[in-house]
Amino acid sequence: MSVHFRKLALIGIGLIGSSIALAARRQGLVEVISIATRKQDTLDEARELGLGDIYTLDAAEAVRGADLVVICTPVGAYEGVMQAIAPALEPGAILSDVGSVKGHVVKTLAPLIPDGVSFIPGHPLAGTEHSGPSAGFAELFAGRWCVLTPGPEVDPIKTEKLAGFWRAMGSQVESMDAAHHDMVLAITSHIPHLVAYNIVGTVADLEAATQSEVIKFSASGFRDFTRIAASDPVMWRDVFLTNRDAVLEMLGRFSEDLSILQRAVRTGDGPALEAMFTRTRAIRRSIISAGQETAAPDFGRQHEAPPAPETPFVREHGGGDDA
Ligand SMILES: NC(=O)C1=CN([C@@H]2O[C@H](COP(=O)(O)OP(=O)(O)OC[C@H]3O[C@@H](n4cnc5c(N)ncnc54)[C@H](O)[C@@H]3O)[C@@H](O)[C@H]2O)C=CC1
Ligand SMILES: O=C(O)C(=O)Cc1ccc(O)cc1
């Protein structure tokens, strides 16, 4: 255990913010944790859970004297948060975040970063469908990738310092370009969520229209979709509003492939269906046998770090919803 930062400020204390607080405390990575939220109820809940040392509704107050500030709100709230904290950020501090989208974050925040502050966007590829301060747990990041997207102006020593913090919470860290991150995450995370929201919505409409027992008799495949489709509506609204181009690009490819499958079903093309399903089964099996079930998708790039240990991407973990 060694102290990585003196004062950690967390702006927003839902699933991800509370998990950082618990992991950093458990590993002794920071001396002081200050927490800012927008609503009193959320702050009270964080205090009752003992997540930090300082609790405030004033984000500027939270970041004063902090050498690491991590924004943990939905991406749509970033600009307002940044306007509030910019004048209070300490020279020499690292400012980071955990948002699921990176290009938009860089575009929005970079012009507002004060001189002397290192802006290093981040994204832990770890989460659940739960939200709010009680949803967090210290092991969330263990064996998961955390992607950092520092710009060329960032001192590599600062990036390494932040990477060390994430490694100490159990993550493996990889740096990449924000645009590349957004394209990879569009197809591996954002579109799967869109598909889940859509299929559950379609079934719900059917159910309403027919009073049938579709949901009652749904098999486990559909239940997996309902878990994903229970994810936080505000967070995911912001993901689709802010990663629009990459999502639309990948959705185009997805739709083309779906049309090919649709045609194979319509024409009764058994060999085409079987060939497709055989290919996807082989992909799943090769991921498992390489022990890379949790490894970051690389789209042909080489990982610097070894594959993450084989742990489920998402734990079944209870948790409340955000206030
Ligand atoms: N949920 C997940 O599985 C993952 C989420 N992320 C990213 O992490 C970020 C946070 O997500 P969660 O922790 O899941 O959300 P959450 O809904 O559990 O928590 C968000 C927190 O931000 C607070 N908040 C909202 N607006 C605020 C404002 N203007 N000022 C201060 N606090 C404000 C809320 O009160 C709440 O405490 C998002 O940007 C999301 O894209 C990243 C990886 C996984
Ligand atoms: O709950 C799930 O299955 C997830 O996919 C969690 C998740 C959600 C958003 C992210 O940016 C990263 C991970």
TrEMBL record:
State the pathway, as annotated in the record: Amino-acid biosynthesis; L-tyrosine biosynthesis; (4-hydroxyphenyl)pyruvate from prephenate (NAD(+) route): step 1/1
Keyword Hydrolase present in the record's keywords: the answer is no
Supply the alphabetized keyword list: Amino-acid biosynthesis, Aromatic amino acid biosynthesis, NAD, Oxidoreductase, Tyrosine biosynthesis
Q: Which domain of life is it from?
A: Bacteria
Q: Where is this region: Disordered?
A: 294-323
Annotated Prephenate/arogenate dehydrogenase domain ranges read 6-295
Reaction(s) catalysed by this chain, per the record, are:
prephenate + NAD(+) = 3-(4-hydroxyphenyl)pyruvate + CO2 + NADH
Which protein family is named in the record? Answer: Belongs to the prephenate/arogenate dehydrogenase family.
Protein name as it appears in the record: prephenate dehydrogenase
Q: Which organism is it from?
A: Devosia ginsengisoli
